[in-house]
Amino acid sequence: MASKRILLLGGHGKVSLLLTPCLVARSWHVTSVIRDASQTDDILATVKDDRRSVDVLVSSLEDVKSKRDAQQVIDRSKPDYVVWSAGAGGKGAPSRTQAVDRDSCIHFIQAAADTPSITKFLLVSYPGSRRTKAPWWTEEEWAGTQEVNNGVLKPYYPAKLAADECLTAIASRRKDLHAIVLRPSRLTDDEATGRISLGKTKARGKITRGDVAATAAELLDSEARGWLDLLEGEEEIAAAVERVIRDKVDCVEGEDVERMIQQYG
């Protein structure tokens, strides 16, 4: 694939710090968006042998209050692909989670959709971000998911769900926009294995941040689209990506996509 320009939102997150060298290794250029200039050295340290392939853009996502604000960031970086791996991180009041994980993310989705040169948008979410039981889950798995969503992940759950649904709806309108919602389960800092379970997985599990980053890069370098749950597993990453594309796996199954389109499309 020809060299691409990537806008990485949430560039100082743990997954993003691992993703940046994965993208640069494909001869792509990364604009990493961070909220604090003091984080710059951490970004550049991930690609110390090829720093010319990374730009750092200091811009707080919390300050993105409109599609126009998001468009200004996009216009400065001129990306082909956008990756949202940002979030409030559970810090601050619930209103901060809504402002970043929901509102800012949706503004970027809308701005990206209105930018014809952007052909892929990868959003990092989580498996429990859905309204109904996944058809391949057990009742026990769904009950456990609901307990978490309405407990420790409240108000994170509705914020992420809104962003996931907005991207899905808008991609249904702009057919040439590959919308990828990558939905890893509990993240760990263990050493990456290169082996995963991708697609219709169990409701709960774990996955290393390194494997999330490697999977995201592989998905961006493919024709993948749709919702894809991600856990640790036994399948090599490239083979797993090839399989979900071939079999047209989409974990949005069971959700009301028409309602999403009516609300956001």
Describe the overall structure.
With 265 residues, the protein is α/β, with parallel strands linked by helices. Helices cover 40% and strands 20% of the residues. The protein has a 9-stranded mixed β-sheet with strand order 3-2-1-4-5-6-10-8-11, sandwiched between helices. It has a two-stranded parallel ribbon with strand order 7-9. Helix 4 links the parallel strand 4 and strand 5. Helix 1 crosses helix 7, helix 3 crosses helix 4 and helix 6 packs across helix 9. It is globular and about 50 Å long. The model has no long low-confidence stretch (mean pLDDT 96).
Q: Strand arrangement, largest sheet?
A: 3-2-1-4-5-6-10-8-11
Shape: globular
Q: What percentage of the residues does DSSP assign to strands (E)? A: 15-25%
Q: Are there runs of 5+ residues with pLDDT below 50, and where?
A: none
Rg over CA atoms, rounded to whole Å, is 17 Å
Largest sheet: 9 strands, mixed
Overall mean pLDDT? 96
* Proportion in helices: 40-55%
The helix/strand series, from N terminus to C terminus, equals EHEHEHEHEHHEEEEHEEHH
Number of alpha- plus pi-helical segments: 9
Specify the structural class. Answer: alpha/beta
Q: How many beta strands in the DSSP annotation?
A: 11
> Distance between the terminal alpha carbons, to the nearest Å?
30 Å
Outline the fold blueprint:
Elements: E1 5-9, H1 14-24, E2 29-34, H2 40-45, E3 54-58, H3 67-77, E4 81-84, H4 94-113, E5 120-124, H5 139-149, H6 156-173, E6 178-184, E7 186-188, E8 195-199, E9 206-208, H7 209-220, E10 226-232, E11 235-236, H8 237-246, H9 257-264
Parallel strand pairs: 1-2, 1-4, 2-3, 4-5, 5-6, 6-10, 7-9
Antiparallel strand pairs: 8-10, 8-11
Helix pairs in contact: 1-7, 3-4, 4-6, 6-9
